[in-house]
Write a structure and sequence with these properties.
Blueprint (H helix, E strand, L loop, with lengths): L2 H18 L11 H11 L4 H14 L3 H6 L2 H8 L6 H16 L8 H4 L7 H12 L8 H10 L9 H14 L5 H14 L18 H5 L16 E11 L2 E6 L10 E2 L2 E3 L5 H13 L1 E15 L4 E14 L6 E5 L10 H16 L1
Parallel strand pairs: 1-6
Antiparallel strand pairs: 1-2, 1-4, 2-3, 2-7, 5-6
Helix pairs in contact: 1-11, 2-3, 2-8, 8-11, 9-10, 9-11
């Protein structure tokens, strides 16, 4: 890559960033722990949604030691509503490793950092460059978009060869000794100017250097993979009450929504919703129930599928076997448990029903 081009792009980007960067809470600290927390939250979450979560999280767990000694349930409760709960589980595991094996400090060696749970290539580069100003280029969705347009890359960035090419370009453009500001500058440009739709090209500091802008193809890049149709499932769950308590079950720690609590139920097969609700509760908790009226219907979209969830009130009949993952919880204590979004909607409908009866 031409040295003059590289220097010009670096200068323009850094100058623009220093004048236009947003005042965000994790930019007001040099604490590697807090920078790491912000990166974990913002991986799959917009800044406007993630900022209040970040502020609550670091208030509850102000140091890596606090996070390490917290229970996973407390961590999941703080994460409740953010989705992609594996991020919270990985934060908790990584904090314990950092405290037990790295004297409570996020390691500065790339090979040590990338071994931590949740530290993929992007997170490792982001934390080491922003927290320690190390010369590692980042490649997230914003950076991919900026580079794909600047260099008019017409191959799909999800393909291994293309991603490798983008990593190489990102590293070549990185000004040594200025990684902290430069990496944030490219990501900020992608967030504020070089947006997925209708980019603000006229306000872009590097528009004269952008091949896609010159060719008028900026909105066609980066090339997208064809969308796959998401499967849809019908789910039936039961609100089982007994003596002022409600039955909750905990999901296995590994897998989707691992460690979260929910109302017992599951996927409908070739059966009625009532039969599905009865069968799933008995299979998962060992409790036979009578399924009563429907409380609510919830539509929810996950990353790879969508559901229509039907919630029914249920009356317990008899235990047929014991279950280690279920618990009778006082109605007023349910809010203490980490419950994922679709079941939070069910809980609201249940609360409304309780108020009316």
């Amino acid at each position: 890559m031409d040295n003059d081009f590289v220097l010009k792009l670096q200068t323009k980007l850094l100058s623009w960033y220093h004048k236009n960067k947003r005042d965000l809470p994790w930019r007001r600290t040099s604490d590697p722990y807090k920078i790491w927390i912000s990166e974990a939250i913002l991986q799959q979450t917009r800044i406007d949604q993630g900022t209040p979560y970040y502020e609550r999280f670091v208030k509850q767990f102000p140091t890596v030691q606090d996070l390490a000694k917290a229970s996973l349930q407390d961590v999941l409760k703080m994460w409740e509503g953010l989705g992609y709960y594996s991020r919270a589980r990985n934060l908790h595991k990584a904090a314990q490793i950092i405290v037990n094996e790295h004297q409570g400090k996020i390691p500065q060696e790339y090979v040590q950092a990338i071994d931590l749970p949740g530290f993929g290539p992007y997170t490792t580069a982001a934390v080491l460059s922003i927290a320690y100003n190390q010369d590692h280029a980042v490649l997230d969705g914003n950076v991919i978009r900026v580079l794909s347009r600047v260099f008019a890359i017409r191959e799909n960035p999800n393909e291994t060869v293309t991603k490798k090419k983008l990593w190489e370009k990102a590293q070549e453009l990185l000004p040594l000794g200025k990684a902290r500001d430069y990496n944030q500058a490219v990501m900020e440009l992608g967030a504020l100017i070089c947006s997925p739709q209708k980019p603000s090209c006229e306000s872009c500091p590097v528009k004269t250097m952008c091949q896609a802008y010159k060719l008028g193809i900026q909105e066609q890049l980066p090339v997208k993979s064809p969308k796959k149709e998401k499967p849809h499932y019908e789910i039936a769950v039961g609100l089982v009450e007994k003596s002022g308590k409600v039955l909750l079950i905990q999901r296995p720690e590994k897998g989707l929504l691992g460690g979260m609590w929910e109302f017992p139920g599951g996927k409908r097969e070739k059966e009625s919703l009532v039969e599905c609700c009865r069968r799933e509760i008995q299979e998962k908790t060992g409790l036979a129930v009578k399924v009563e009226e429907e409380l609510c219907i919830v539509e929810h979209v996950y990353s790879h599928f969508s559901i229509t969830l039907h919630a029914h009130r249920c009356t317990p009949l008899r235990m047929t076997k014991t279950s280690s993952n279920s618990r009778w919880v006082l109605y007023n204590d349910i809010k203490k448990y980490p419950i994922h979004t679709s079941n939070q909607k069910v809980l609201k409908a249940f609360q409304k029903h309780k108020q009316q009866h």
